[in-house]
Amino acid sequence: MSTIERNFVLTFGQPPDIIAAAPGRVNLIGEHIDYSDGYVLPFAIADRTYCAIGKRSDRRVHIASAQRRNRVISIKLDDIKPSRAGKWERYVLGVIWSLGINQGLDIMIDGQVPLGAGLSSSAALECSVATALNDLFSLGIDLESLARLTQKAENDYVGVPCGIMDQSVSLMANRGSALLLDCRDLSSRNVSFDVAASGLELLIIDTQAHHSLTDGGYAQRRASCESVVAKLSIRSMRELTLEKLEASKDLISGIEFMRARHAVTEIRRVLDAVVALEKEDFVDLGRLLNASHASLRDDYDVSCPELNTAVAASISAGALGARMVGGGFGGSAIALIKASHTQETIKNIETQFRKNRFKAPRFFTSLPSQGAQIIQRG
Ligand code: ADP
Ligand code: MG
């Protein structure tokens, strides 16, 4: 019996009807452009969140998580509607709400994606629940729609204005590939990303920094992009070119110009990264990662000293490239490194963090993995 199944039985007194799992993700490149109709190039990590569900005969939903001491939270089905009430369980309730489930449930969660490290444990949680419910109730929802519904759960129920990327990759990723995702129409294609065969590795550095700017800062960046779009009468940053942006400089503020320049150049870098991957040109990929970081740091202004230190220390230890990932103001960075250099790189980053009196970082390595799956039925 798997750990989650055992937990479920111990907590709810009977075996689950279904178990599903969904992974966290790292976005190789294409940061802060999912909400600007851009392209992103994430891959699923090996760590995943497991969700076991059983139907109940009454109209209550009981939810517990191994990461929350398996304490059962109970709510009436009819009380599941967006409000500020509740904590982590809102990620689960939001999916029940957005999928329109009208049945009492027992739900057990066990997540191996580090929480709040920029690896999208939130999407892993939502997508594991959505995948389980889609199968359990034979809803037949396709993956694109499921991505939109889980995003809706996080946007409208939890109240986090996230884009569509995290849920899409958690649901659609393939092993050994990155997922090129067009955030405008959600079309996607897998791009082979066989780092291991080239003797390379992706080092994920969780800086353990969480600057309080996180929530407001993200909303402000989105607002700047929306303001540029309105002032230039375009539909999204996707329609903008550097030339058009330069020519429109007088119509927008200096800050808006910088934010827009990040969006425009980052969209270009994603497409260049796909070419680099197709040619297995990892040197060029590294260059693009560095350029992405500089743009996020200088034009988008979402980095922080810990992230900048992690990136600089990776590069001085010989990384092909490195950049912050996720929303910014803390969280994680990734470095594309030679697998033989892992320990050396980690040591260098640790030394630099100590020198700067930062909290000690955590390290993970991961290869591109499979998206959401049903683990067990009945
Ligand atoms: P990230 O998605 O980068 O990990 P978020 O702040 O978006 O960070 O999401 C983390 C939140 O998601 C946690 O604070 C918690 O509320 C919820 N969460 C994610 N995974 C779990 C889990 N396994 N058990 C309980 N809550 C979880
Ligand atoms: Mg998240």
Which SSEs are present, and which pair or pack?
Blueprint: H1 3-12, E1 18-27, E2 39-40, E3 42-55, E4 60-65, E5 73-76, H2 90-98, E6 105-111, H3 121-136, H4 143-158, H5 165-172, E7 177-182, E8 188-192, E9 200-210, H6 214-231, H7 242-247, H8 254-278, H9 282-298, H10 305-316, E10 321-324, E11 330-338, H11 342-355, E12 362-365, E13 373-377
Parallel strand pairs: 4-6
Antiparallel strand pairs: 1-3, 1-13, 2-7, 3-6, 4-5, 7-8, 9-11, 9-12, 10-11
Helix pairs in contact: 2-3, 2-4, 3-4, 3-5, 4-5, 6-8, 8-9, 10-11
The structure holds adenosine-5'-diphosphate and magnesium ion.
Strand/helix succession: HEEEEEHEHHHEEEHHHHHEEHEE
Q: What fraction of the residues are assigned to beta strands by DSSP?
A: 15-25%
- Biggest sheet record: 6 strands, mixed
Structural class: alpha+beta
